[in-house]
Amino acid sequence: MNPAPNLILVGPMGAGKTSIGRRLAERFGLEFADVDQAVVERCGATINTIFEHVGEAGFREREKAALAQLLAQEGKMVSTGGGAVLDRDNRSLMQRRGFVVYLRVGVEAQLKRLGRDRARPLLQRGDREQVLRDLTAVREPFYMEVADLMLDTDDLSPGGATSTLAQLLAAQWQRSERAA
What we know:
By secondary structure, the protein is an alpha/beta fold. About 55% of the residues lie in helices and about 15% in strands. The protein has helices at about 15-30, 35-45, 45-70, 90-95, 105-115, 130-145, 160-170; strands at about 1-5, 5-10, 30-35, 75-80, 100-105, 150, 175. The strands form 2 sheets. Strands 3-4-2-5-6 form a 5-stranded parallel β-sheet, with helices on both faces. Helix 2 packs across helix 3, helix 3 (about 45-70) crosses helix 4 (about 90-95) and helix 5 (about 105-115) crosses helix 6. The longest helix has 25 residues, at about 45-70. The chain is globular, with a radius of gyration of 15 Å.
């Protein structure tokens, strides 16, 4: 058993962090929180608008603050943005304050799942497939670094992934109180 006060989902866009996270929160009696949504609420602007006005670096600063605020609490099911792992402090905080699950997904599955998505700023540049491959090359080592558990979601529906993950978590994670 690996005790931690929160569950945290990391992984690339299209892995299912939000849809699976909501279901897991319900199963484990946790409060669901989406870091991207927390940034939007705090800023009063969409992620696209934030990127337009302060760029990716400005967005990452806001993401870091939102993540820290959420993980200062307990009993949360936190869905992170795909790039949250890029920051060393974020990775350290996630490892200290949560049991981290890496939802892995291949580029082909991402392309299918994100085919109609026009809301993600990083997908608005050039060849989507190449963008996703480049993001995976940079981010996957960080996902692996922070992960207590990994689940490949390529061939799983959100419901199927949730069931599988719930079983794995029941065997490997125990909710703790007041971890550092």
